[in-house]
Structure formats: C-alpha cells, structure tokens
Specification:
Largest sheet: 5 strands, antiparallel
Oligomer: single chain
Strand order of the largest sheet: 2-3-1-4-5
Helix content: 25-40%
Order of helices and strands: EHHHEEHEE
Strand content: 25-35%
C-alpha cells in the first residue's frame, strides 16, 4: 500500500482521480457477500414460496443494475463501460444464508472493484427487501473484495 489516498488533493479536498494518462487494460473484480436468515425464511427462497416472487432472480437483476449505476451512487467513481457483469446467488442451507458473488469486467483506465461491491450490496439489499415481511432479523454480512486483476496495482486475491 502506498499510503497515499488518491481521492484527495494536496489541500485535503475530495476530488475525482484523473485517469486520462493511465493505460487501458483489461480489468476484473469479484466481490462476495451473504444474507443470513432464519432457516424457515431460507426455505421460502429455496422452495420458491416467497410472496414477492423469485427472490434469487430479482436480486440477480438488481445486482447487475446496481453495478451499472455505481457512478450514480458513489460520488467519486468514474462512469465505466462494463463489458461483463454476472451476479450469482445460491442457497446455503447449513449457514443458513444466501451467498452472493459478482464478477465485473471492463477494458479501461480504472478498476471495477466498486462495481463488483455495489452489485453484491444491491443484490443483498434486494434479498432483504423481498423477505423482510417474513424475517426482519436478517443480516447482510461479509461484503468484501475477493479478487481483482488489471491496472497498475496488478492482481489481488483475498486470503
């Protein structure tokens, strides 16, 4: 880590980073997270009995839309032309949780970590929204960057 925060200028004012001189490279980011819930609530998802419909399908689309709108939500993010966004959700009966993974790709001058994290976050919020009538105690947890590749800083893989 360089210790230099690039979203601040010399005076400490927030700024959007100038990426105009950076090389265009292929960039990938994978983020993960989960929504923990009561086993009875998870059964609604697994059996397709949630009153609002197919929880996983709606959350998948919401996550994709979230990735595409990251620059509208996070003030200093650059708007990016994304070339791939996948959001996978699966039921883990043992935890009991819905596990979420998003992969985002682009060829550009800045990374897609925030887009992957936003995709997971929006998918998790959608799961919560669709099931909150059944379980208000759900917990959105462990949202994190799992992998990134491309750009000056190269490859990162979480332990």
């Amino acid at each position: 880590m360089t210790g230099r925060l690039t979203h601040f200028d010399e005076t400490g004012a927030a700024r959007m980073v100038d990426v105009s001189e950076k090389a265009v490279t292929h960039r990938t980011a994978i983020a993960r997270g989960a929504v923990r819930m009561n086993p009875e609530t998870l059964a609604l998802v697994a059996e397709g009995r949630a009153k609002k419909g197919d929880v996983l399908a709606v959350a998948r689309l919401a996550g994709i839309m979230g990735a595409k709108r990251t620059a509208d939500l996070v003030p200093l993010c650059h708007p990016l032309a994304l070339t791939k966004v996948t959001v996978d959700l699966r039921v883990d009966q043992e935890s009991p949780r819905v596990l979420i993974e998003a992969e985002v790709r682009t060829s550009g001058q800045t990374g897609v970590e925030m887009e992957a994290l936003t995709a997971v976050s929006v998918a998790a919020l959608t799961v919560y929204d669709m099931l909150k009538a059944a379980d208000k105690a759900m917990v959105i947890e462990d949202i994190r960057l799992a992998f990134k590749d491309g750009g000056k800083s190269g490859r990162y893989e979480a332990a």
